[in-house]
Design brief:
11 helices, K_chnl_dom, about 250 residues, transmembrane helix, transmembrane, VG_K_chnl, ion transport, mainly alpha
Amino acid sequence: MIYLTAYAVPILDPQLPRTWRNAAETVTFTIWALLAVEFVLRFAMAGSRWQFLKVRLFDLATLVLPPLRPLRLVTIVFMVVRRNTSTLGRVRLRLGSYVAACTALLLFLSSLAILDVERRNPDASITTFGDALWWSVTTVTTVGYGDLYPTTTEGRLIAIALMVGGIALAGLVTATLASWFTDRFSDLRATEARTTSEISALTEEVRRLREELHARHPAAPSASAAGPRVASDAGLDGKAPCARKGS
């Protein structure tokens, strides 16, 4: 944040007093020197230096090319997300915040960087921060109207970094959404399997209860078996016993 502030203030305020401008340049140079020392030490301690360079190409580019140095801050958000892939369920809940912060930081830094290198060129079409921000948005969304474009080599390098960063953000969102849908489908299948198992167990329990009930209470005599007993109680003339008694 200190580096971002020291880098942004002189660009956003071209009329900044020389004293403050020198202080900002000193801060940015000091932080750049610390990052360079860190990179050299990591390179010296790496087991496979070629593999280290392959992984750290972006860090090397931000050290060698001054306009790309602010974009190093964008890697912080990617690092947080990458280190939390093992607990993606919790990270997914904060994905919106991560993506929003990373996108805003990427757009802000790319706008500052492109404005810093372009407005020094007499033929530049990007001369204000508003133009730079509009260019960053149209570039990262792959719209590219073409009304604003970099005219310097440094500006084109910043455009490449912005395009790659936009693709990385889109890939992050797509991968996380795909993982979320996959987990949802897995949960639905697990719930369906549990429901099926519970229904099978309940059906088996009902069957056992029926068998137990049938064993304890046999079925009552049918109406055809009770018919002869009713006929024997009746009189020979077919009248009920109470009717004969009255006669």
